[in-house]
Design brief:
- The protein folds into two domains: about 140 residues, Response regulator (Rossmann fold, 3-Layer(aba) Sandwich), CATH 3.40.50; about 60 residues, Orthogonal Bundle (Arc Repressor Mutant, subunit A), CATH 1.10.10.10.
- Helix content is about 55%, strand content about 15%.
- It is rod-shaped and about 80 Å long.
């Protein structure tokens, strides 16, 4: 099995270096290279290689736009973006365009062979630093969503009672479990439903499932 590859970078030294590195592997074959995105698109449309490695910042057509158009003309191709940029904005734009891999130029020499084999198999491959950035962004996004969640309107006790209510426990059951009076439980339940703008138990159950409070169906 030989994996065919097209390289595109506006710096000849990068293209030559990658070619030399890749051709030390007998199952990798560079079948062409280009110094701008438009020529890369033309080359891929003629050869339809297994993998295209594209610099993100190229003249005439940048790597992200080239990725979109390359996938249009050769849907089975796997694109790896090569970049100096480690910002989430660049990463997400590349992945949204259809890239299966994203390598930082600083570490490409160590990772490019593994990246090629990974994307060829249908996997994604991101430089370690890129993976860290995506994870941090995900955590930040989840924290933001948590801040904006209706659940933040509820006190800890109200969230506790919410779960017990949607799990089908009666006010007396909950009162016994939490060492409260039934009337206090009823007050908590009314208050939490008012805060959530929910007026009936079936809707409350749906809300709880949607927000991961309970897994009951």
């Amino acid at each position: 099995m030989v994996i065919t590859i097209v390289l595109a970078d506006d710096h000849a030294i990068v293209r030559d270096g990658l070619r030399s590195l890749l051709e030390t592997n007998e199952n990798l074959k560079v079948i062409g290279d280009a110094d701008n995105g438009r020529d890369a698109l033309h080359l891929v449309s003629q050869t339809c290689p297994d993998v295209a490695i594209l610099d993100i910042a190229m003249p005439e057509m940048n790597g992200i736009e080239a990725t979109r158009q390359i996938i249009d003309v050769c849907p089975d191709i796997k694109v790896i973006i090569l970049s100096m940029h480690a910002t989430s904005r660049h990463i997400y734009r590349a992945l949204q365009a259809g890239a299966r891999g994203y390598l930082l130029k600083a570490s490409a020499g160590f990772e490019v062979v593994d990246a090629i084999h990974a994307v060829y198999k249908g996997q994604r491959y991101l430089s370690q630093k890129i993976s860290d950035i995506i994870i941090e962004d995900y955590i930040t996004q989840r924290e933001t969503e948590e801040v904006e969640s209706p659940l933040t309107r509820l006190s800890s006790r109200e969230r506790e009672i919410l779960q017990l209510v949607v799990e089908g426990k009666s006010s007396s059951d909950i009162a016994s479990l939490l060492s409260l009076s039934s009337s206090t439980v009823d007050t908590y339940r009314s208050r939490l439903m008012q805060k959530l703008d929910i007026s009936d138990i079936p809707s409350l159950v749906k809300f709880a499932i949607r927000h991961g409070i309970t897994s009951i169906e």
